[in-house]
Each structure stands twice: as structure tokens, then as C-alpha cells.
Amino acid sequence: MLRTNTKLRATIALIITTFCFLQVTAGNNWNVPADKKTKNSTFKFDANTVKDGESVYTKNCVSCHGNPTKGNSLKSLNPVPPDLSSAKTQELTDGELFYILNTGRVIMPSFNNVLSEEDRWKVIAYIRSFNKNYVQQVSTNDATKSQLVKADIDFNKNTNRLTITVKATEKTGSVLLKNDEIALFANRYFGRLQIGESQRTSADGVAVFDFPKDLPGDKDGNVKLVVKINDDTYGEILRLKTMQIGIPTDKPALNEKRAIWNVLAKAPYWIIILYTSGVLAFGCVLMYLLYSLNRLRKAGNN
Amino acid sequence: MATKSNTDKITTDLLRPIRLNKSFIIWMGFLGVSLVICLGAYGWQLKNGMVVTGLGDYVSWGMYISNFVFFVATSLIGMLISAVLGLSGQKWAAPLARIAEIIALAFAAVAGLVIISDMGRPERLLNVIIHARIQSPIVWDITVVSVYVLISALFLYIPLIPDLKICAEKLENLPPFARKIYKALSLNWNDTPEQKKIIKQTTRTIAIFIIPVALAIHTVTSWLFANTSRAGWDSTIYGPYFVTGAFVSGTAAVIIAMYFFRKNYKLHDYITDSHFDMIGKLLVLVSLVYLYFNLNEYMVPFYKMKESEAILLHDLFSGNHALLFWSVQMLGLVLPIILLLFKKMRKPQPMLLIGIMVLLGAWFKRLIIVVPTQEHPYLPIQNVPLNFKIYSPTLVETLISIAPFILVLMIITLLAKVIPIIPVHETIEHLEENK
Fold first, then answer.
1. What ipTM goes with this model?
2. How far apart are CA B200 and CA B187, in angstroms?
3. A14 — contact with chain B (CB < 8 Å)?
4. Parallel, antiparallel, or unpaired for β A181-187 and A173-176?
5. Which of A199, B121, B288, B429 is deepest in the core (most CB within 10 A)?
6. In the 8-state DSSP scheme, what is residue A81?
7. The model scores a pTM over 0.80
8. What is the rounded distance in angstroms from the CA atom of residue B126 to the CA atom of residue B128?
9. What secondary structure letter does DSSP report for A253?
10. Does residue A106 belong to the interface with chain B, where contact is any CB pair within 8 Å?
11. Is A214 helix (H, G, I), strand (E, B) or coil?
12. Which residues contact A275 (CB under 8 A, 6 or more apart)?
């Protein structure tokens, strides 16, 4: 009886250990596609980029990963976010780090739409600054090439669809950007709102997005659109365009009317009335009392 | 003839304490030295900033603000005893009116200072007034506390005018300058019918006016909390809850003061056992009302157990603060009520102990109201250090919190040294009326 029990326990223990081991190995493997592994930054990492990267890191990463080399990452998460100065992380190529930042995994968020490409590379520069043996490989791609790309945005009122055509104007002629990741956003007060899902451009460099019918614009209905394209040759491309396709919205600013939260000059009337009448009542009573005391003093003279 | 000697006895009895004696000097010296130590602690805080306290991003209102609430609370007693009991014809309370007024004035005046101890940059104090927004309860609080201090001072002063005249005439061995001050402050008092009428009228006016002002100061103090949406503070009964709590701590303060004045100033004929009996009953009454509000304040959210409230209530009833919470409720409220139901307990000695228990309970109750709520913010900080989550006051902070008590004791001692603490003129008048 006892024996089977121990056996059973041993088996369970074995299963659990194997499982943990599997999990760990799974945790190590980010399955980065070969072509992404070799991607590199177009600018050289130096003291300045490391400094900028540090501030990106403090804003976006430190809450989970803690400070590199300090081992103070957020232990309550599962998996525990690794210390990014560790050998395990430093073994990854720049392209792999960039890919991890772009895609994320479960708890590790995707920073693709949160940080600009430049900031993503800068934070990698910061992570690398903890590795003395690191030698950077700078991309041979020309960073200025992205300027050749144009995105034409067309809006169809009847279907409420946006058609985006992406092409680059080379000296040799127009090049259509095919099968590129493309995402559409609308600017809001804080950050951007993604419209629909990211897509890939068609063989003619075209992507079609359904535009929501109820998106508020400014008071004329203007919406600031941002198109983001990722191309292996031209890099990350951001194009902005303001279009009159939202619902005109003219809400007064929150600090325009009289309100509790506003400045003194814009205090609500009821508070002004209550407060001043209280103070006035006190003033009257005080005057009456002082007047009475004066009468009292005079009455003593007779 | 008998009346004449009676009047003389009253006058000498009640004026006797007004002289410099050794025990007064020793007591004031002791208070002075303690105050210097506490001010040293405050100097340390001024120099190094608020890091010397246990306050942080979570609990930014700790001992200091609890202290403030306690001081405002205790000062309400002037209104209860002198105004409410006076206007409702409770004659027995008349000899206690001045003690209550002195306590009220001292606590209210010092309450303003207590707030400053919570400011990291007290030199910017004036900004609160220069950039005041009347939308802010803090501005209402400043207004209403200042008004209350002024009104309390007048409430103490006006009925005192005839006594000041008696002081000027009857006190022996008085330095000439002091006699002059008494005379000037007595405003030509000649006991004329017209003067009597004016005093009566004005005292009545203040007695009526001070009731809404006193209600306002503590209601507004409660709104500093209740006008937020934080668990535990977000309550519609906070105003009356605070006001009734205030009567409890104020009555306890008066009982303690009564005991010591009676003993040290030999006032057994004026503060009698029956006074203790009556104020004991008063304490039962206000405590019962307060208990009723406590029941509402904790039972209703406990029944509903909304998520954020539940965290706080678990913390209070069975968690971190349970010991303090139950001690305060049981030893500071329930037990005193039960004890005071027995006539034997409403004698001076046991009442002193009960008074101290209630007053201590009242102070810690303020801590229970102010602190635990802040330990559970709606938007917690990630990776927050443990000392943010659990508030523990430092020694410096404790010393600075003791300073206002010393100040209050000094003010009370000083006032009780220069004015008769039982109204002389009124007592004589009473005697004549009852003849």
C-alpha cells in the first residue's frame, strides 16, 4: 500500500518536473523567423542613444523587468520577467530583441504600436550597454530610403472604406510595396486608436480598411489618420493625413464652464452664494457684538 | 448679613486660585521644557523635510491630520455645554460653562497650528489664502475654524466682563499693570440694569450663533474626507458621525478638567458630586448617540460588502487594525457607557479614569478613521515598498503630535490662572435669585 503510494508520488513528481522543464524550454524559445533575426538598427548605438534608451526603459519596462543587473523584476508575474542584462537575454541577436519588442508574448506586451521604431532600437541600445562584449552590427539599409515612400489614402463615402495605396518613387520608377504589414490609426488625446486589424498590402500595394461610422472627429469632423507600414527595404514608414470623415463633435472643454474643479473665477454660483452668505452672516453677528460691547462701555459711564 | 458673608465667601473662594504659586510655576516649567523638546523635533522636520515622518505616497494623512480632527472635535464641547445646555435651561451646567469655553478656545486655536505640522513647506501657508478656491472644502475649513476661534473667544469674554471688574477690585497683591488690564477689559462695568441687559442679549445671540458655526466646523472637517470617493470615507453620514463623536471626546475632556480644577483649586463647593453625576449622564447620552452612528457607519457597508469597502472592513474587523479598532470601540465607547450606568461610577475618581479612557479612545478612533482607508488606494502603485502600505509613525512625528497637547494644557493653565474659572458674578446672582 505504502509502496504504491510512493510510486504514485514519484510518478506525479516526475510528470510535474518534466512539465516545468518543458515550460522553461518553451519560455526560452521565441521562434523568431530567420529573416527577422538578422535585422539591425540603421543607426549606431552611442552614449546618447543609450541615454535616450534608458528613459524609454524607465517609462515602459522597469515596472516589470526591474533595473538591469539589480534582480528586482516583478516576481509576482508568471513567467517572471527576466533581468535583461542576463547572459540569456544578451545571447539574443539585435533582430531577435527587436522582434520580441514588436510581438510580445502573453504578459510581455507588444510595443509595436506603442514605441516608434527609433525608440525601440534605442531601448535595445540601453539593454546592450550592460554587455561589455557586445559588438554592434549596423544595418546596411539606408535610413533615408523611407522618405521615398508615399501612401495615398482614399475615402469612399458610400462604403465608408479607406483604400490605401503604398508605393515608393525610385529613380527607376514607381515601386509598389507588396505584402507589407500595414496598420491604420486615428490620433486621440492620449496615444492612437487602431482602426481595424493590421493587414498585409496586396500585390498592387493596396490595403482596404473599414472605417467606423461613429468615430468622433473635431468640430468639423476632422480625424488625424496615421498609416504605419513596415517594409524590409524601406524600414518603418509613418504617414499622417487629416481627413474630414469623423462625426463633428464640439464638446466644450472641461474647464470652460463653471465647475467644482475650475479656477476660482469659474466657481459654481451655488458655492459662491453659500460661502459668501455664510461669511456675511458671520460679519453681521460680529458687527452686532462689537456694537453691543461699545454700548455696554458707554452704559457704564452714566 | 448672611448673604453678604456668602457673597464674600464666593468671591474669595473663586478668586483664590488667581495668584502666582510654586506649583503653577513648576507645572508651566515642565510644560515649557516638554514643548521645547517637541519644537526641536519640529525643527528637525523643517530641516530634513517630511521624510522624517512615516508619511508616504499611500498614507499622506497620518497622525497629524488625525490629531487635527481630534482637536477640532474636542473644541466642539463649548457649543454643547454653554450653548445647547444653556439655552435649554439646564441650570446645573452653568458653573461648567467657562471650563468648557476655555477648553473649546484652546483646542480650536491650536487645531489651526496642528494642520501646519502636516505641511512640508509651511512658509507657503499664505498661498492657501492667496490662491484659495472656494470650491475646496479645505478653504471652507479654514474659514469656519477661524470664525469658531473668534466666536469662542467672544463667548468666553462677554460673560466674563463682570468678573473682570470683580478681579480688578477684589484681587489683592495685584501688580498695577495687571489691575489696569483687568479694568480696561471690564469695559466700565458698573452692574447697571442696562449693562446687565446687554450682556444677557449678546450672550444669548452668541449662544444661538455658535451652534451652527460649531456644527459647521466639524461637518466641514468631515467633508474633507466624505467629499472623496475613497472606501470608508465615502459616506453620507460623516457630518453627524463626526459631530456626535466630537461631543464624546469634548465631554471627556471637560470631565478631566473638572476633576483637576476641583482638586487643585479646592472648588468642592462649586463643582460638586452632583455635577459629576450629571455630566456622567451626559457622557452616556452622547456616547449612545455616537454608538448609534458607529453602528450605521460600519454595519451598512458590512452588510453590502462592496469590493473596495470589504477590503477595508476586513482590515478593521479582523486584519491589521483589528486590535486597535476593537479596543477603541469597546474600551473607548461601549465599556464607558456600561460603567456610567451605575451611580457609583459617576463619582469624581472613577469618572476621571473613564474620562481618560474615552479621550484616549477618541484620539485613536481618529487614527482609525484617517489611516486605514489610505492603505488601500483604488490605483495601487506597482512594486510599492512595504513601508508605503503599512503606516507606522516615527518618533519625531509622535513628538510633534504631542506638542499641540502641551500647548493646549499651557493655554488652559494660563487662562485658569488669570480668570476665575467658575463665573463669580453669575454664581452670586444665582444665589440671590434662589433666596
1. 0.89
2. 15
3. no
4. unpaired
5. A199
6. P
7. no
8. 5
9. P
10. no
11. coil
12. B134, B140, B143
Of B54, B159, B145, B59, the residue nearest B104 (C-alpha): B145
Identify the bridge partners of residue A193 per DSSP, sorted by sequence position.
Answer: A186
Q: Do A295 and B198 touch (CB under 8 A)?
A: yes
Of B143, B190, B201, the CB nearest to A292: B201
Cell of A244: 474630414
Shortest CB distance from B134 goes to which of A267, A297, A300? A267
User: Could you tell me the CATH superfamily of domain B4-433?
Assistant: Formate dehydrogenase/DMSO reductase domain (1.20.1630.10)
Measured CA distances, A253 to A249, A260, A262, A263, B324 (Å) = 12, 14, 11, 14, 47
Q: Name every residue whose Cβ is closer than 8 Å to that of residue A139 and which is 6 or more positions away in sequence.
A: A39, A40, A41, A42
In single-letter form, the type of residue at position B42 comes to: Y
Can you tell me the distance from the alpha carbon of A263 to that of B131, in angstroms, rounded to the nearest whole number?
A: 9
Record the cell numbers describing residue A209, joined without a space: 480598411
B323 touches chain A (CB under 8 A): no
Query: In chain A, which residues have their Cβ closer than 8 Å to the Cβ of B213?
Result: 282
| CB of B22 less than 8 A from some CB of A | no
Q: Do A37 and A137 contact (CB within 8 A), yes or no?
A: no
In the block, cell 509595436 appears at A112
Q: How far apart are the C-alpha atoms of B96 and B87, rounded to whole Å?
A: 14
Q: What's the CA dihedral at A271, A276, A278, A283 to 10 degrees?
A: 170
* Per-residue confidence in pLDDT tens, chain B, 435 aa: 346 778 888 898 899 888 888 999 999 999 999 999 999 999 999 999 999 999 998 999 999 999 999 999 999 998 999 999 999 999 899 999 999 999 999 999 999 999 999 999 999 999 988 999 999 999 999 999 999 999 999 999 999 999 999 999 999 888 999 999 999 999 999 999 999 999 999 999 999 999 999 999 999 999 999 999 999 999 999 999 999 999 999 999 999 999 999 999 999 999 999 999 999 999 999 999 999 999 999 999 999 999 989 999 999 999 999 999 999 999 999 999 999 999 999 999 999 999 999 999 999 999 999 999 999 999 888 777 777 888 999 999 999 999 999 999 999 999 999 999 999 999 998 888 876
pLDDT score at B41: 97
- Please write the tens of the pLDDT for every residue from B207-220: 999 999 999 999 99
Q: Which string of DSSP letters, residue by residue, matches B357-375? A: HHHHHHHHHHHHHHHHHHT
- Non-local (6+) Cβ contacts of B5 within 8 A are none
Which residue's C-alpha cell is 453625576? B277
Quote the CA–CA distance of B265 and B13 in Å, as a whole number.
9
Domain ranges of chain B: 4-433
Radius of gyration of chain A (CA): 32
Q: Is B257 helix (H, G, I), strand (E, B) or coil?
A: helix
Peptide bond into A79 cis (omega under 30): yes
